[in-house]
Inverse folding.
């Protein structure tokens, strides 16, 4: 158990809909990352938050947005869903205490299927 | 620009042999860290090993070692005495800078299959 919790584990929804993916980082971790992994692909970096502030942005679509709340949990909102958004969405967190060597701990992922 | 390249989409190796998974990176930041992760078919991401840009020694963790060649900007993962349980996707990743408050980007991965 990595200590990072993602809900839900599976989500099936129709095109055009909006969904919210939730992530609870490891206790005390300030950094939260979101990644998208399409079938048999690598992990595409979407966005990173650090202590409530957006820290870095990857190739995140305008239809996607995220936020980190004061209790450090994070949500990724996906709207106007398309078939191509079907993927495994990972959340990860890392500690601020180890500097650059802090590895990212990953949740189990949310498998999103858009039909 | 920060970039990670893994040029081997897939590899087959005989059980008990050693295997090297290639990773090259590009960054203009003199301070950075390199990570390797394993993703079994069950889907979870498992951290394997870390190498810092200023580390003098190559990192080792059990059967995993990192062949770090800074001048060539390569950070290959070596798995000694491979086991059937090593069959998985392997990802190389990089974080720039001194702080953990920097993004980590991943390569496209290598699918390793171990033959009995």
């Amino acid at each position: 158990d990595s200590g990072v919790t993602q809900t839900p584990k599976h989500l099936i929804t129709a095109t055009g809909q909006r969904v919210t993916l939730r992530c609870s980082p490891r206790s005390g971790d300030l950094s939260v990352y979101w990644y998208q992994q399409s079938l048999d692909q690598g992990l595409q970096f979407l966005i990173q938050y650090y202590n409530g502030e957006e820290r870095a942005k990857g190739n995140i679509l305008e239809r996607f947005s995220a936020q980190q709340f004061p209790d450090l949990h994070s949500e990724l909102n996906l709207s106007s869903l398309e078939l191509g958004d079907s993927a495994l969405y990972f959340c990860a967190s890392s500690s601020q205490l180890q500097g650059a060597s802090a590895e990212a701990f990953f949740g189990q992922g949310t498998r999103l299927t858009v039909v | 620009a920060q970039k990670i390249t893994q040029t081997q989409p897939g590899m087959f190796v005989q059980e008990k042999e050693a295997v090297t998974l290639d990773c090259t990176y590009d960054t203009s930041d003199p301070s950075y860290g390199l990570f390797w992760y394993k993703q079994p078919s069950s889907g979870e991401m498992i951290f394997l090993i870390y190498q810092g840009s200023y580390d003098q020694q190559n990192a080792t963790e059990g059967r995993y070692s990192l062949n770090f060649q800074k001048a060539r900007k390569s950070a290959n993962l070596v798995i000694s005495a491979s086991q059937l349980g090593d069959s998985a996707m392997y990802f190389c990743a990089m974080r720039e800078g001194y702080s953990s408050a920097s993004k980590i980007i991943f390569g496209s991965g290598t699918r390793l299959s171990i033959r009995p």
In short: The interface with chain B takes residues 2, 30-31, 33, 35, 41-43, 45, 48, 50, 55-56, 58, 88, 90, 92, 94-106, 108-109 of chain A (CB under 8 Å). The first strand of chain A starts at residue 5 and ends at 7. The mean pLDDT of chain A is 95. The two ends of chain A are 31 Å apart (CA to CA).
